[in-house]
Design goal:
Length: about 90
């Protein structure tokens, strides 16, 4: 291959343009992925805090109802079942 030829220079220039374009696209994809990760991490933190608050609220309500004898034992089991299902469903998020 004659590196001084016009054909070689044209091919190299086209290749260089293609390489720059490809690298730029890769950078853009990487930045988009980083942004998505940041958004999802913030959303996950928000949901975890919400779960904690709701779990605390459930504990308080359960305690209040138990102290006044309003909630029968079978209702406690049902609440626990739903709470466990909720927590399992949201652990994968």
């Amino acid at each position: 291959v004659d590196k001084a030829s016009d054909e070689y220079r044209r091919r190299r220039e086209r290749n260089n343009i293609a390489v720059r374009k490809s690298r730029e696209k890769a950078k853009m994809r990487s930045k988009e992925t980083e942004e998505k990760v940041k958004v999802l991490m913030r959303e996950n933190e928000r949901l975890q805090k919400r779960i904690e608050l709701l779990t605390e609220e459930l504990g308080v309500l359960r305690s209040l109802f138990s102290n006044v004898g309003v909630v029968p034992e079978h209702l406690h089991r049902e609440i626990n079942k739903h709470l466990d299902a909720f927590q399992q469903q949201h652990q994968g998020l």
